[in-house]
Design a protein that fits this description.
8-stranded antiparallel beta barrel; single chain; mainly beta; 12 strands
């Protein structure tokens, strides 16, 4: 169902671009602030308690936009990189995680001057966790005796999300545009699951959405040609 909705959205996007004024291509970089990462399993039988949080997550992206006077649909492809830091009793592990994201947005502009405008975006899209489950595993042993296993298990399926943001756009003659943006991403389903198991207690599991906020910089290349 999600795939069909995305194909339909892409078809609508392609149709409306026939009547737009300009084509914009952009690149972006964002600092990501993950939510609900600290102490994901509060009732885990461990002392000190288990902590799990993302360390310096960052997002890179490319985008294609068709510009009207005040409204512009855009389609992007983003790659999110996280170093997930796990801290448990007598152990600490860093795990790398990659996430692919395809957002489809409607962008609004409110000019403040000839070269400055407020920008707002509203949209959604799909994402997919690229990291395999085998690369997200750790555990703890004493004298070759297993105390517990800790697995970060991703549900390997497409997941939908909604996004909203705002920022400021600065235009420069013959040098394109620079946007400063603040965005929030809400996932429709719980895509991340933690499993904590050992020989001395029952398995404990919990799952979370990969919601996050992001602040970043977007550079839009100058137009190759103007509309007639």
């Amino acid at each position: 169902m999600m795939k069909k909705l995305f194909i339909l959205a892409f078809a609508v996007f392609s149709a409306v671009t026939t009547y737009s004024q300009k084509s914009n291509f952009g690149i972006s970089i964002y600092a990501v602030n993950d939510i609900n990462w600290n102490n994901p399993i509060d009732n885990a039988p461990a002392f000190p308690p288990i902590t799990l949080y993302s360390k310096m997550p960052i997002k890179f992206g490319v985008s294609y936009e068709r510009e009207y006077k005040k409204v512009s649909p855009s389609l992007g492809i983003n790659l999110i990189y996280r170093t997930i830091k796990y801290t448990g009793p007598s152990t600490e592990t860093n795990l790398n995680q990659y996430n692919l994201e395809i957002p489809l947005n409607v962008n609004f502009r409110k000019p403040l001057s000839q070269d400055l405008a407020l920008i707002f975006n509203l949209g959604g899209g799909i994402n997919y966790v690229l990291t395999s489950d085998e690369n997200l595993h750790t555990g703890f042993e004493i004298s070759d005796t297993l105390v517990y296993n800790f697995d970060i298990v991703y549900q390997n399926k497409l997941n939908g999300f909604a996004t909203a943001g705002m920022g400021m756009e600065c235009s420069f003659n013959h040098f394109g545009k620079i946007q400063f943006k603040l965005e929030y991403f809400f996932q429709f389903s719980k895509q991340l699951q933690y499993e904590y198991s050992g020989p001395y207690f029952s398995e404990i599991t919990d799952s979370y959405r990969l919601n996050y906020g992001a602040i970043g910089l977007v550079y839009i290349f100058p137009h190759s040609k103007k509309s007639k």
